[in-house]
């Protein structure tokens, strides 16, 4: 096998790195070279097809590498072709110049098993370990069962820096294999065995078969179909079958992952723009069975605004970190740029780019070159999405913390332009974080821990207003009577569910009205209207107050109802006009239209019941009142008779006195 | 030159000193300073709780070092011990250090995985504290 490190085509000298060399030599061997070094066309074609590049690109590759000219693939042509395919997969044009720079290994699916099989045949030296690892990293993410090739050839085409991670893992595992301890890759010769075993396990996993064409990085297509109850199991299984795809940034959230996180978020909190409280999130993430210190660290990384609750982007970040951790990645010390809540795919430019440039410039100065974080960020994990040239800049981004905003370190302005788009979304986020941190000192006028707690809790629902006692002075009998009747009314109210339709109160008042004495007082009618409108406003405001004030509504309604109920009953003060009765339904109609928000379906059937109950109660009160009336009449008669007798006695006595 | 930052809630939650040798001495210092803190607190009779009262100021100077105290509203005390030879530190700087400490401490508290009363193990917090100590001393 020709291990020549140069492939000459048209005089161009293209150098291959060690890993590339190993990989290509493996692939070369795979393609069954004959004695003269020519490769079997069939195998080559198969390999090319496995790269999943469009046919046109493959033709171009063949042409450029010179095989077309020669009519066959020799070693040199093959190597160049491989490099060109790598370039094409990276999104670069198929030209010789593209292969001059560093490129990731080209990815082929379906070929890997054979590749892996071959490796134990290689001499087991130290070289073979990076060899294996190099090829493993190239081939590992592609077990035949469910491996995506390149999930996002589209999204990453315009970001060249996305390609550094695929290279660096090839380099870093030999350096820090302990970092990937739970990885099968970390092992040495056993790497292939464990990988195969892992493949077997993955292939054996039950579920929707993963088509190769469907790029499902974490086998997420499966997850939304699982019932939510098995969330725990699904999280574990998700983690179990997830593998790192070195060809893409592991700190980037893919579409499928995003979808999955969205579903999970929805299961915890239906509103995507709302927050998940800390305790809820804690319970959820504890199910992932990571140790608490790590979860704590993940929380610290992902809760960017430090409010003890997770917004949706923060939740995605946290989830992603958990998944990454489960797959053996060590957690970064600072949040990678791609996981920041403000991060946006480069294809999606934030809406006001011109505005964003302004804060971009301003907040550049805020970046702190935290030295310790720099090292940790860049050395431990070369997973950053920027190439080595600008990694310093990147870690500077990562190491900046909002609390350090007072320190202004001038930016060396060495950022290449292609970072601008990704930094732009960072800066508004930074802006927010900075704002929040600056507002933090102001909040110390209140308590500190309590302040933090307050941020977590929503304001407690206001206690229901106390029942209005009778504010009107009137005869005690009447009061007691009406208290009893109102109690009856109130008990009828209490079982009512919190969404209170406004119409029944109107009708109840309406039904109270017939029980009252009727006389034509316009003033009273207007007063009633006034009360009613006030009541309506109260109702509106209480309904507008939202869920938390629903408790308010029934007691308030109750009290105002009783208030109103007393109003018609007090014969002295309020006498309701029959017209007012007719007026109230129309007022009730717009009233209900205006205020009814939730219980639109319920009033009609409820109204009937309410009306019937109201009718019953009114009949009772009617009976009571008539009884009272008769008693009073009796008393009146008695008194009258007494008066008559007294008068007659007086008459009798007067002639006696006059004489 | 020895300095230390300690967070105590009647037992040490967090102790960090530069250099790291004399920690035992700082343990002793913080225990004695707790008495002084109690004195100050009982003397003032805190009805309100604005930041000025959170900062307790120089607790007591000895010939070796000075001790500054700060107490949060939840009775968690921050203690900073600095060498007496380090005269460059002004009161405002100490105040700002306490403010930063308090901020970071609140962040730690916000973390639902942190149970109040546990020793603080957050790496972010550690890094903030170290940076602060390096800058100040």
Automatic annotation (TrEMBL), chain A:
Chain ranges of the EH domain: 20-104, 257-346
GO MF, one annotated term: calcium ion binding
GO biological process, one term: endosomal transport
EF-hand domain segment(s): 290-325
Compositionally biased tracts (Pro residues): 166-176, 495-505
Domain of life assignment: Eukaryota
Cellular component aspect of the GO annotation: cytoplasm; plasma membrane
Composition bias, Basic and acidic residues: 144-161, 393-417
Chain residue ranges for the region called Disordered: 119-186, 377-608
Polar residues biased stretches: 381-392, 472-488, 517-528
Biased composition (Low complexity): 582-597
Pfam families: EH
Protein name: RalBP1-associated Eps domain-containing protein 2 isoform X5
Name of the encoding gene: reps2
TrEMBL record, chain B:
Cross-referenced SUPFAM superfamilies: SNARE-like
One GO BP: endoplasmic reticulum to Golgi vesicle-mediated transport
InterPro entries (alphabetical): Longin-like_dom_sf, Sedlin, TRAPPC2L
One Gene Ontology cellular component: perinuclear region of cytoplasm
One Pfam family from the record: Sedlin_N
Keywords of this entry: ER-Golgi transport, Transport
Subcellular localization(s) per the UniProt record: Cytoplasm, Perinuclear region
Domain of life: Eukaryota
PANTHER family recorded: TRAFFICKING PROTEIN PARTICLE COMPLEX SUBUNIT 2
Assigned protein family: Belongs to the TRAPP small subunits family. Sedlin subfamily.
Name assigned to this protein: Trafficking protein particle complex subunit 2-like protein
Organism, as annotated: Cyprinus carpio (Common carp)
Upper classification of the organism: Eukaryota, Metazoa, Chordata, Craniata, Vertebrata
């Amino acid at each position: 096998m020709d291990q020549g490190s140069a492939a000459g085509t048209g005089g161009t000298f293209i150098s291959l790195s060690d890993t590339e060399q190993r990989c290509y030599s493996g692939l070369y061997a795979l393609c069954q070279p004959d004695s003269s070094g020519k490769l079997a066309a069939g195998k080559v074609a198969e390999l090319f097809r496995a790269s999943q590049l469009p046919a046109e690109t493959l033709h171009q590759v063949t042409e450029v590498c010179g095989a077309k000219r020669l009519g066959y693939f020799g070693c040199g042509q093959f190597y160049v072709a491989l490099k060109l395919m790598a370039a094409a997969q990276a999104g670069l044009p198929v030209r010789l110049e593209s292969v001059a720079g560093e490129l990731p290994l080209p990815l082929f699916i379906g070929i890997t098993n054979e590749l892996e099989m071959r490796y134990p045949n290689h001499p087991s030296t130290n070289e073979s370990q990076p060899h294996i690892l190099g090829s493993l990293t190239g081939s590992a993410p592609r077990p035949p069962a469910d491996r995506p090739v390149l999930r996002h050839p589209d999204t990453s085409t315009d970001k060249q820096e996305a390609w550094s991670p695929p290279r660096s893992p090839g380099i870093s595992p030999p350096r820090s294999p302990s970092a990937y301890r739970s990885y099968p890759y970390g092992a040495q010769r056993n790497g292939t065995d464990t990988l195969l075993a892992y493949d077997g396990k993955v292939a054996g996993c039950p579920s929707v078969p993963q088509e190769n064409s469907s790029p499902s990085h974490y086998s997420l297509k499966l997850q939304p179909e699982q019932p939510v109850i098995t969330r725990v199991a699904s999280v574990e299984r998700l983690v179990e079958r997830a593998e790192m795809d070195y060809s893409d940034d592991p700190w980037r959230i893919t579409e499928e992952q995003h979808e999955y996180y969205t579903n999970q978020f929805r299961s915890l909190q239906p509103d995507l723009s709302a927050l998940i409280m800390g305790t809820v999130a804690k319970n959820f993430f504890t199910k992932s069975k990571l140790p608490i210190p790590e979860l704590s660290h993940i929380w610290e990384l992902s809760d960017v605004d430090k409010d003890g609750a997770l917004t949706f982007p923060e939740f995605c970040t946290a989830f992603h970190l958990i998944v990454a951790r489960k797959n053996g990645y060590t957690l970064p010390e600072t949040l990678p740029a791609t996981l920041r809540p403000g991060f946006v795919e480069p294809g999606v430019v934030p809406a006001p780019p011109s505005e964003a440039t302004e804060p971009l410039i301003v907040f550049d100065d805020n970046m702190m070159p935290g030295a310790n974080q720099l090292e940790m960020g860049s050395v431990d994990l070369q997973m950053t999405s920027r190439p080595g040239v600008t990694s310093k800049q990147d870690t500077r981004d990562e190491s900046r913390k909002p609390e350090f905003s007072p320190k202004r370190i001038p930016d060396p302005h060495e950022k290449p332009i292609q970072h601008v788009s990704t930094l732009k979304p960072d800066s508004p986020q930074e802006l927010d974080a900075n704002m929040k941190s600056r507002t933090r000192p102001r909040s110390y006028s209140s308590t500190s821990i309590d302040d933090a707690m307050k941020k977590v809790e929503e304001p407690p629902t206001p206690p229901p207003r106390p029942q209005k006692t009778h504010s009107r002075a009137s005869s005690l009998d009447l009061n007691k009577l009406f208290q009893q009747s109102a109690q009856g009314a109130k008990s009828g109210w209490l079982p009512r569910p919190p969404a209170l339709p406004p119409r029944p109160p109107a009708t109840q008042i309406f039904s109270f009205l017939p029980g009252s004495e009727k006389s034509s007082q316009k003033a009273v009618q207007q007063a009633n209207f006034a009360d009613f409108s006030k009541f309506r406003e109260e109702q509106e405001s209480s309904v507008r107050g939202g869920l938390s004030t629903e408790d308010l509504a029934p007691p308030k309604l109750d009290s105002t109802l009783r208030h109103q109920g007393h109003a018609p009953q007090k014969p002295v003060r309020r006498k309701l006009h029959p017209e007012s009765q007719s007026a109230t339904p129309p007022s009730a109609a717009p009233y209900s239209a205006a205020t009814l928000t939730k219980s639109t379906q319920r009033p009609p059937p409820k109204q009937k019941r309410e009306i019937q109950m109201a009718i019953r109660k009114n009949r009772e009160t009617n009976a009571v009142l008539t009884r009272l009336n008769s008693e009073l009449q009796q008393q009146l008669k008695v008194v009258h008779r007494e008066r008559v007798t007294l008068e007659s006695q007086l008459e009798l006595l007067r002639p006696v006195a006059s004489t | 030159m020895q300095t230390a930052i300690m967070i105590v809630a009647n037992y040490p939650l967090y102790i960090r000193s530069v250099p790291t040798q004399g920690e035992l001495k700082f343990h002793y210092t913080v225990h004695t300073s707790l008495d002084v803190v109690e004195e100050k607190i009982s003397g003032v009779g805190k009805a309100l709780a604005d930041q000025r009262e959170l900062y307790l100021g120089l607790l007591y100077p000895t010939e070796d070092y000075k001790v500054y105290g700060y107490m949060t509203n939840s009775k968690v005390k921050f203690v900073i011990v600095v060498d007496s030879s380090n005269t460059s530190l002004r009161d405002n700087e100490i105040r700002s250090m306490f403010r930063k400490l308090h901020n970071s401490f609140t962040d730690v508290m916000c973390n639902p995985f942190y149970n109040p009363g546990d020793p603080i193990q957050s790496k972010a917090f550690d890094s903030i504290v170290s940076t602060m100590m390096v800058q100040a001393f």
